[in-house]
Amino acid sequence: MERYELGRLLGQGTFAKVYYARSLKTGESVKEKVLRVELVDQMKREISVMTLVKHPNIVQLYEVMATKTKITLSLTMLKEVAKGKLKEDVVRKYFQQLIKADDFCHSRGVYHRDLKPENLLLDENENLKVSD
């Protein structure tokens, strides 16, 4: 964890905590997802898939760090899509980006199986990124 300055807790679920972090090398904001080691098989699958699907509309995995008790993933720092009614041109842009990401995954034999609003995020330029 010496490569990142860990910040505030952004959220947590049953098996993971997500923190804001900053790369000490680049200064870039990232998201640190810390998981309990019991999820090793699931995490190995997720990590191998994320290395296959490098695409502008898919969350980028920067680094994987592991100890005996935790697995930490450094991911692109993103925000949720605004709730409520969106303008048609914005929805069209997001939908086109989603289709491009999904098509890219399918061309590599990867199928998301859990596309839902919570897994559709935005980068600092308001471009859609598919997560999870």
Overall description:
The protein has 132 residues and is of the alpha+beta class. It has a single domain, classed as Transferase(Phosphotransferase), domain 1. 25% of the residues lie in helices and 35% in strands. It has two helices and eight strands. It has a five-stranded antiparallel β-sheet with strand order 1-2-3-5-4, with helices on one face. Strands 6-7-8 form a three-stranded antiparallel β-sheet. Strand 4 (61-66) and strand 5 form a beta hairpin. The chain is globular, with a radius of gyration of 15 Å. Residues 4-132 form the Protein kinase domain. One of its GO terms (molecular function) is ATP binding. This is Protein kinase domain-containing protein.
Q: What is the name of the CATH topology? A: Transferase(Phosphotransferase), domain 1
Strand content: 25-35%
Average of per-residue pLDDT values: 87
What's the multimeric state? single chain
Based on Cα principal axes, name the global outline.
globular
Regions with little confidence, pLDDT below 50 for 5+ residues: none
Strand order of the largest sheet: 1-2-3-5-4
* Strands, count: 8
**CATH homologous superfamily placement:** Transferase(Phosphotransferase) domain 1
> Termini distance?
22 Å
CATH class: Mainly Alpha
Q: Strand-and-helix sequence, N→C?
A: EEEHEEEHEE
Could you describe the largest sheet, including whether it forms a barrel?
5 strands, antiparallel
Total number of helices: 2
